[in-house]
């Protein structure tokens, strides 16, 4: 097994048909690849077995979560370089390279290389997936029990862990940064940017004292806290996470706002209140799913009084030619957001309009999410030992990979995020919006 790194580099380049852009360090301490490039550290031969049994993204993700592989050097640069090995361009969207790799391995001239890979990998037994992975789910998507289970997997990993990553704001969605931060200068903090995002939403909704606000997917209560404290509204926040609800109630009580803010563990499909003056849904609609989105839009429309506004803040993907063939990335589905689905912004706008809403404004804030994610990654890395103690090393590794990869996806325009402001107009057609709304003062 001497010079495992050199043999792996040669094999990978023969199969992929392109030079490796990263350096490899193998378990035998051998190294190969371009000097000065980020180094993919293969700590255990088990990583190769993971790739043999699950070529592509899921095999690499399992190896990463289990600690079989690591990166030495700039993680963002390494992920950017490795993306070309995991994905290939096909038509109008990137597709997993797994099929291309399997086709290459079937070629006669590659078979000897494949046999060598089997020898390097060791025992031909599929390794057990890391404990942090969600197993395949059964039954219909987006039923109430299945959605609650999926939300619990993502959010009930410990409030203290999230506090390390998110910072004091406890806001788990895209912050709103100023032009100086976009240009690379450090002027505002993450806390400033999250406060500005919450305030922007309140202004877009035109909140006024005494109004009633519903926050769908309220997380740890930051939106309802800000709206009640700064705008004098009465608010209801709903979440499916027991841990989120417990901390949100504690924060509200400590702020002296328990008489104006209510937190419920409740699904949006279970709300039967009197109409609300405004609804915010921030980073929640990604969990709804294509099959249920019309129901989601109809439910929010019914919960608004005439003249009421909805602010729907949602991650979007690029449209593809064959929408029926779209699937969530395996790593995201198995480790991060079980059953989550992204939609193009055009479909989201169309479905809100189908429900009866008038869409009045769409603001794309893609670059803001990249900045936010990089801040969260920095928080995690700066508190790595504590994060591992609070959860597990595997879970912390999931989050580091997920957030860094997502930051790159936003930067490269593979995904985006949009704030869609919609209104339930009155019978007269009056939307109650100012003629020039972009200053968001009324």
TrEMBL record:
Biological-process GO terms, alphabetical: lipid biosynthetic process; methylation
Keyword list (alphabetical) reads: Lipid metabolism, Methyltransferase, S-adenosyl-L-methionine, Transferase
- What Pfam families does this protein's entry cite? CMAS (PF02353)
Where are the annotated coiled coils located? Answer: none
Show the SUPFAM superfamilies listed in the entry: S-adenosyl-L-methionine-dependent methyltransferases
Entries under InterPro entries matching the protein: CFA/CMAS, CMAS, MeTfrase_dom, SAM-dependent_MTases_sf
| Domain of life of the native organism | Bacteria
Q: Does the keyword Lipid metabolism apply?
A: yes
Q: Name one GO molecular function term.
A: methyltransferase activity
Q: Which SMART domains match?
A: PKS_MT (SM00828)
Q: Which residues form the active site?
A: 406
The reply to whether Lipid metabolism figures as a keyword in the UniProt entry is yes
Q: Which residues form the signal peptide?
A: none
Q: Which residues form the Polyketide synthase-like methyltransferase domain?
A: 161-426
Which protein family is it in? Answer: Belongs to the CFA/CMAS family.
Protein name (Swiss-Prot/TrEMBL): Methyltransferase domain-containing protein
Name its species.
Answer: Streptomyces inhibens
């Amino acid at each position: 097994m001497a010079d495992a790194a050199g043999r792996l580099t040669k094999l990978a380049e023969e199969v992929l048909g392109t030079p490796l852009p990263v350096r490899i360090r193998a378990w035998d301490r051998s190294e190969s690849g371009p000097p000065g490039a980020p180094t993919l550290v293969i700590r255990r031969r088990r990583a190769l077995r993971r790739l043999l049994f699950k070529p592509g993204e899921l095999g690499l993700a399992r190896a990463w979560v289990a600690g079989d592989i690591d990166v030495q050097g700039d993680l963002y640069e390494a992920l950017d370089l490795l993306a070309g090995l995991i994905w290939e361009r096909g038509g109008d969207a990137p597709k997993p390279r797994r099929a291309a790799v399997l086709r290459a391995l079937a070629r006669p001239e590659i078979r000897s290389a494949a046999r060598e890979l089997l020898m390097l990998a060791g025992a031909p037994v599929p390794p057990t997936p890391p404990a942090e992975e969600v197993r395949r789910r059964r039954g219909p998507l987006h039923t109430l029990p299945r959605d609650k289970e999926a939300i619990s997997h993502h959010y009930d990993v410990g409030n203290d862990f999230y506090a390390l990553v998110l910072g004091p704001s406890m806001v788990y969605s895209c912050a709103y940064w100023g032009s100086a931060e976009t240009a690379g200068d450090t002027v505002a903090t993450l806390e400033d940017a999250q406060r500005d995002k919450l305030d922007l939403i309140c202004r877009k909704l035109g909140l006024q004292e005494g109004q009633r606000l519903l926050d769908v997917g309220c997380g740890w209560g930051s939106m309802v806290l800000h709206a009640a404290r700064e705008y004098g509204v009465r608010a209801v926040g709903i979440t499916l996470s027991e841990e989120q609800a417990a901390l949100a109630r504690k924060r509200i009580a400590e702020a002296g706002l328990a008489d104006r803010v209510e937190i419920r563990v409740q699904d949006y499909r279970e709300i039967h209140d009197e109409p609300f003056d405004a609804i915010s849904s921030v980073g929640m609609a990604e969990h709804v799913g294509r099959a249920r989105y019309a129901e989601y839009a109809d439910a929010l429309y019914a919960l608004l009084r005439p003249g009421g506004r909805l602010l729907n803040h949602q991650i979007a993907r690029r449209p593809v030619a064959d929408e029926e063939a779209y699937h969530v990335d395996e790593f995201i589905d198995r480790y991060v957001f079980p059953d989550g689905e992204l939609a193009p912004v055009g479909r989201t706008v169309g479905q809100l309009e189908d429900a009866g809403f008038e869409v009045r404004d769409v603001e794309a804030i893609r670059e803001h999410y990249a900045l936010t994610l990089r801040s969260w990654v920095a928080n995690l890395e700066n508190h790595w030992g504590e994060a591992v103690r609070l959860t597990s090393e595997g879970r912390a590794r999931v989050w580091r990979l997920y957030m860094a990869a997502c930051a790159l996806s936003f930067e490269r325009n593979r995904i985006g995020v949009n704030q869609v402001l919609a209104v339930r107009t009155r019978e007269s057609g009056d939307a109650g919006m100012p003629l020039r709304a972009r200053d968001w003062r009324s």
